[in-house]
Amino acid sequence: MAQSPGELDAQGMTKYESGVKHLAYPIESVYARLSDMTSLETLRERMNDPTLRERLTAQAQGKVTPEQLERTASLVEGMRLTRDTVTTEVPPVGTVTLRVVERQEPKLVKCETEGSPIAGCLWIQLLPEGERGCAMKLTLGAELNLILRQMLKAKIQDGVERLADTLAALPY
Known about the structure:
Blueprint lengths: L6 E2 L5 E4 L3 E3 L3 H8 L6 H7 L2 H10 L6 H12 L2 E2 L3 E6 L3 E11 L3 E7 L5 E10 L3 E10 L3 H24 L3
Antiparallel strand pairs: 1-2, 2-9, 3-9, 4-5, 5-6, 6-7, 7-8, 8-9
């Protein structure tokens, strides 16, 4: 049975799942890109493109303020990337790292947070679709107390969906 957003799993983590995204790229290409965090350099380059930022602002009108987009761009600009990690400064939290802890080629990349006030995991799951495409789904697990779970459920779910949309829009 499918878990609804914000429900606890057996390990006490609250799970949030994106919808399934269909990509017109071979699973091997998508996995190669998503399993190597240095490939996020493209995201940094794209966020520095003024034309793209204007388009994102227009598309996000009413959902994301220009200030939120600017903060995101600042976080992306400050990212330090290795094959296994993405590290950035998150005010007022400090240094937060997302580390790849498991790879199952070509179907799974699992990451965990370090330095975050909330322990969390991110699973990127891939399945082949035909000869030239694949499906992708993201699952975020976070250790949230009852109050935070209720306060943040919709925002986290929306964030997981947006991240999945962003990853699905990248060229592979």
